[in-house]
Amino acid sequence: MHITIKGDGAVEWRQDLPPEEQVESAAARVRPLLLQQEACYYNKALKALNHFDRSPQNTDWIRQVRRVWQARVVETATREAGYQSMVTDTVTGESAELDDLKLALAWIYGDVVHHDTVRRQEAGPLGLQERFRAAVPLVAFIMLHTIGLLHKIQAMQSAGELNIASAVFEEPVTLTSTTVLMEGTMRIAPVGSPAPITAIEPLGPEWKIIAPPPVGPED
After folding, report:
1. At 14, phi and psi to the nearest 5?
2. pLDDT tens string 147-178
3. Which residue intervals of 35-106 are DSSP H helices?
4. d(Cα 168, Cα 7) in Å, to the nearest integer?
5. What whole-number distance in Å separates Cα of residue 106 and Cα of residue 134?
6. How far lies 137's CA from each of 15, 84, 104, in Å?
C-alpha cells in the first residue's frame, strides 16, 4: 500500500495488485482446499497428520495452524482482523456492505469458478475491483499455508512418520513448455473406418500413410 498525504490534506491510497490472470490461476489451484467435500480439504489434511503423529509438539502445531486458518477463511468463524467495505447510492439510497472475506469469496465463486449467483448478487454493488482487491490477500494466504503444509508433510516423510509413495512428490504438476512436438508416421482413413482399440493393435489396410510429396528433378 502506498499512502500519500497531499498539501491540501487529501490522502491518496494506492494498491498495486498482481495481474488478474495470475490470481485467477492461483485461486483455481487452491480452491479445493476450501471445500469440505474435497479429499484435499485443508482441515482433512491436518486431521490426517494428527492421526500419524500425536506428539504434543505436532498436536500444538496443528491446533495453532487450524486456529489461524479458521479465522481467515471460514465465514462463520470469529474474525481476528479484516475490514468492512460499504457503499451507498446517493440517488436511490440503496446501501451494501460486506467484509473482506465475503468479498473475496464472492470473487472466487462468483467471478472465477462457480458463478455463484447469490454471492455475486450480494457483492455486486461493491464492484469487481473491490471483490478482486479482497481476494488477492486471501489467495496469497491460502497459497502460503498450502506451501507450509507441504513442508510439514515432507518433514514427516523424511522422519519416517509417513509412508507416502515417492512418486507423489515427483509427479509433474506444471508444464515446462506448452509446445507439443512429436515425431512418427501419420495415417489417414476414410470417414467411418474402425479405429484401433489399443495403442499396439495394427491398423487396417484402409489406413494409408501420409507420405511426403515426390521429389522432382530440380529438387
Report:
1. -125, 135
2. 999 999 999 999 988 889 989 888 888 888 99
3. 42-52, 56-73, 100-106
4. 58
5. 9
6. 12, 15, 9
